[in-house]
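Recall the central idea of this unit: under ordinary conditions, the amino acid sequence of a chain determines the structure it adopts. In this exercise we apply that idea directly, starting from the sequence alone.
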Amino acid sequence: MLSCRHHIFERILDSVHKELLGATSGPENTNFIEFRDSIWSTIKAETCFTTLLIKDRSLKLTKEHSIRSLKRILSTPNKKNFLPRADYRECAELMLILLGETPERGIQWLKPGTAHHAR
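Accordingly, the structure predicted from this sequence is:
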């Protein structure tokens, strides 16, 4: 049984990762470390990225609603005048980029951070 409902997708992704790439033997994932330290510097993010192409009318409406919601989330300050965590902001901005929009702070590709399993 899961102790926290917020980690359900994390557990699902962990299972997919284990199935595709095998289990890890330690707290750090060597695949992530290699990607972060070796491969990331070779990626030209400005030239190898495309947005989602949505043709279906009902999906276009969902896309437009999602864009409005994400922009509202990013522009509405909380009590401390910022989103609680930088990775939440980054996730929302990446979703906007995938949907073909440019966030207020512009398009930024941040180098991956830690490579350990938090749980």
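The helical segments are 8-21, 30-39, 57-75, 86-98.
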